[in-house]
Write a structure and sequence with these properties.
With about 260 residues, the chain is an alpha+beta fold. About 30% of the residues lie in helices and about 25% in strands. The chain contains 5 helices and 12 strands. It has a 5-stranded mixed sheet, covered by helices on one side. Strands 4-1-7 form a 3-stranded antiparallel sheet. Strand 8 and strand 9 form a beta hairpin. It is elongated.
Length: about 260
């Protein structure tokens, strides 16, 4: 093999390796220590807000007693012989929390739920059923029907995402969106949240364990995640460094090939 062919082969190998290398050079949670515990609010529950849609079902040992509370969901039906039975058909529209934070619930009427988490809302409805002497031991379940968040910026997949159980962390949301891009600013991951009728922004550093203590570690519905990209100056610096590294690799490879050829003579 002559000198020209060896040089071309070396350059091709360097270019192939350079193209396969990942542009990402960062580590999440890089200040965590192995074996050390980092507490977080594992009992977190999303708080009900205006314009939420909730699936609410009431059940008990005698299904006919729960029938009046399930008219909208259709979870109980009356058969031809007059007995009550469960229905497989559900109305996915649920109960909408109005702008005053209330829902209009069968039998019980207007109930204020905004500002309560799921457990608190469940207990409130359950207690009102008991206090009204409708059912002695009702079972109440509440689920979100429209829990969603939006992801924008320097991240794999921009767009809106939905959550079935109303519980998702910021880290999980980033993973669902295809991970951060190489241009993401790790210390400027913003969560924009509506609080008491106003928008509020929280900045998070994905490199730090402090994210476990962030009020946005668990997302609320309608949160907007914005991953700030690096500034253009920083982009130019990164590209310059990449070009210098590639050029150095090419020169080193060429010199190594020439040295090997000369040594073999």
């Amino acid at each position: 093999m002559n000198l020209r062919k060896l040089i071309i082969a070396g350059l091709t190998a360097v270019l192939a390796l350079s193209s396969c290398a990942s542009g990402k050079k960062f580590v999440y949670l890089n200040d965590m220590e192995a074996g050390k515990k980092y507490p977080f609010d594992y009992r977190h529950e999303a708080v009900i807000q205006c314009n939420d849609r909730l699936a609410i079902t009431v059940s008990c040992k005698q299904p006919e007693l729960a029938l009046p509370f399930n008219i909208q969901t259709g979870s109980v039906q009356i058969s031809s012989d007059g007995t009550a039975r469960s229905s497989a058909t559900l109305d996915n529209k649920g109960y909408r929390v109005d702008t005053d934070g209330n829902i209009d619930f069968p039998i019980l009427g207007t109930i204020h739920l905004a500002g309560l988490n799921i457990s608190e809302a469940t207990e409130l409805i359950k207690q009102q059923i008991i206090d009204g002497d409708y059912i002695k031991a009702p079972l109440v379940t509440i689920d979100f029907l429209n829990f969603k968040y939006t992801v924008l910026g320097a991240i794999g997949g921009n767009g809106s995402y939905t959550v079935n159980d109303g519980r998702i962390t910021l880290i999980e949301a980033i993973a669902n969106a295809g991970d951060l891009s190489s241009k993401a600013r790790l210390d400027r991951i913003a969560v924009i949240r509506e609080t008491d009728g106003s928008k509020e922004i929280f900045l998070n550093d994905i490199r730090s364990k402090d994210i476990f203590n962030s009020p946005c570690f668990f997302l609320q519905q309608n949160d907007i995640i914005y991953v700030e990209p690096k500034y253009k100056k920083k982009d130019r610096e990164d590209k310059t460094l990449q070009y210098v590294t590639l050029a150095t690799s090419l020169v080193t490879t060429v010199c190594s090939v020439i040295w090997a050829i000369n040594s073999a003579k």
